[in-house]
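If your schedule permits, I should be very grateful for your opinion on a structural question. The matter concerns a single protein, recorded as an amino acid sequence and a row of backbone structure tokens. Could you please explain, in whatever detail you think fit, how the structure tokens follow from the sequence? I set the record out below, with my sincere thanks for your time.

——
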Amino acid sequence: MSEITDFDALRRAMAENSEQPEGPARNARAEQLLVQAERLNIPLAVIEALGHQLKVYNYSSEKDKMFVPFARLLRMWDEHPEDFDEYETHSLHWVFKWMSSGMLDQPHIPLASIEKWLGEMEHRYRLAGHSERAVRSAEFSVAAHIGDVDRAERAYAAWLAADRDSMADCHACELDGQGWWQAERGRDAEALELWAPVLSGEFTCAHEPHAVLASSLVPLLRLGRLDEARAHHLRGFRLVRAMESMRGAYADHVEFCALTGNEARGLELLAERPAYFTDTGHPRSRMNFMSVVTLLMDRLTELGLGDQQVPGPAGRSWTARELAAHARGEALALAARFDRRNGTPHISERVRRRMGQRPLVERLALGVRSERLAHPVRPVAPAPVMPASAATGDEPDLAALLAEARRLSDTLQPNAVEAWAAVARAAEGTDLDARDRAEIADHEAMDLGPEGAELFERAAELYAEAGDPGEALAARARAAYVRALAGQVDEAVEAVAGPYDEVLALYAEDGTGVRQTASVLMGRARILMRLVHEADDATGGGASQETVLAQAEGAAREVLALVDGHTGDDVRLASRAAEARAMLAELAVHHGDVEKAADLFAGASAAYVDAGLPWFAVEYEARLAGLAQHLGDTAEAERALKAALEHGGPHLEATGRAQLHLQLAEVLGGRGQSAEAAEHALDAAHWADEAGEGPTFGAWARHLLGGFLLRQGRWAEAAEVLESALLDLSAETHGDGAIVQTQWWLGDCLSRLGEHRASAERRLQAAEIARHWPEQHDHATLAHLAAESLDQAGLPTEADQAYARAGELWRSLGNVHGLVRSQRARAWLALRSDDGAEPARELMAAAVHECVSALSTAADEESRQRLTAELGHTHRQFGDLLARSSAEDAEDGSIRATFEEALTEVEEAVSVFASLGADARHARTGAELAAGWLAADLGRSAEAAARARAVLEAYADATEDDEAAQERRAEAEQMLRVVREPEDC
């Protein structure tokens, strides 16, 4: 640390320290600076150093340290007020408010001392001529803290009635406190109305909207405004994450996670701030933090995860159950200290209420990645409904279970297999007849999928034993089909041939019904369709692809011919007809007849819906959506995907639901419907996580969601989601293009949020990947954007290097516009450096040369028009650069010569823009006005006036709603007034 030898150096050091992150390191530096200030033997230096120390303490976890420097400042004021300048006098009175609230936060300070301090504050403010607004606000805080509602309401009314003056908190902070009180009193809607100007960005400060965003979370949840709550969490947590002093707001975000089914994210938040468990400098925020830790840990324990390892105080490992007990004890002990000080039970009651809250939403999707908990604790689909007789009493009613299972299977309900499993469990040790045993085996085989062939064969034997040869043949056909699913397609074709011939013969003799016959015919058709899929790459069984297609089509049509006219109310037969149409649709795709395929899939879907089996329509609506996209009919694709989600309802598995939402998000995004697309991308990410597919298409969903949020200007939310997506995106799974695009979008978000250094890093990372691509346009664009961010981040050397690299790339691509803009940017950078005026001139002259050279070889009129406009802008910027390059201490003759040169460039810009006609009117008039001001500076009033009148004439027909025109007219009129004033004197 260098020695501070003068007051200016001290002030520079304090300013530098103010820019450092909140925390003990900044506080320690402030303490060192006070020691060095005392050595200067300048009272004001000590006063300023004490004020700086007090400020950094207040904005840290060591708030308890701020009372000592304030007491010293107050003593210095009482003894030598003349040592304080105007700013430090104001600051001293300003921090009275910090002392008042700070005392409330420290339970060891007696309430009587706080009340005495409040009176002292009122007395000193009155002596200084300040309004009582800040005093009444402080009194309100005391009354609300101890639970004296009547006094709090009176102080609140007096606070709002008093005049705002220089001692009043900023608008943002005042609205924060006022909204908090409304929410505390159960008036959530009124709270959010008060907070609206802060949330919209109308009023901000160092800690706002950070605190309001956090405070708004639970009120929004209670009002059911879930989309806003999600947005406020993503936006608000980003703001408080790095601010050590905002433990209370951080706790609000942990609470939000516990109340919305986002327990895993809550754990991640705890892991990010281990010091929050133990920092003791601000007891009230520690109490609030430990309260929500208890809430979260209790929730995990309730979900069966009490033994899960969780982040906690350093020095040992913690389970959720252990941390719940520890945090509860800490929170209640702190609350008891406050209550002893206050003489009321209010704080303990509030803490208990907070710890005892119940979830307000079962699961609110956030769109950001979160580590999965130890095991799934929430079902994603409803359990099968059991009959009343089976659900009551100690012993299940086997007859009722059988009846229910048959009803479900006869009507093709999704939970039929589970119902038969319940029958099997209830029937253990019971002597069932062959038919019952056949059906149990049949459905158990269905549950086994490709491994169920042998059990289907056993079911066939039992059906035959029960005297149902048709159903026995159907079971054998099912056995053949699952062999095809296992990859044994040729064997399956042979295995189904016998049952097929036998069932047709049996049906002809009235030995079995349509249902059993249709089942065998459908089994054969399914196997032949598997053969079609095999024949896509190679022939199966020696048959040509045309033969296989013909056989499959014949089989599907045979099913249709059999069931035609027989479906009636038989949903099984209706299902066979619908599936056969879907097979014909699939075959139409193979023949290249996409429109016919779409019609057939639509028919199959409609048939399932008409039969009361909408969940079977999901697959075909999804296929129809893909075909519609192929045909360019995005409206039909959107309809089909929404229908698929509706038809699937609660029966859709998480994976299928995620895929449908993802496909719909892509379709809607392509149609420009970003808001709705974002909703589906959010749902896709949520269901992908539920399915354990977060790193695969969950990451892709987050990638899309971030892009859609970006399109809506929701920069902070988009940044959170995109950063989350990058954790899982990989070149192997998603392609490096997805990574580049995500980094690109994230760089754009960070730029809009003012995080320019981080924006540059993201853009450079993306550029490094794009550097290896054959086509270099993206590489050039990213290098250019990175240069812009580096410049805005205050890194001119790095920015110049990036612009130079971008310029080389633009030149190699033949992109004159990019090259010229990089040269102009480098010129402005050069001008800001020492001795940079001449290099800046050279760079801008080179940009003019590039434009002129490109114009001489332009291939078409459109290119000429664009290059001409670029030339005009370059001349205009050259003129502006020259005008600003003249040093203030230069000789008058030198300044005049530079202004003359600048005027020549701007006049050239006017001429170039004029050649483009009406399309460049605003650009021309802007240059005209710039030339007018330069002429005025050179003492050419008549020329300046003429240019102003030319602008007014250019906008003679402008309407009042043309803002650009009105701005130009106002500036021209101002110029006329300025250049006429010397003549009037």
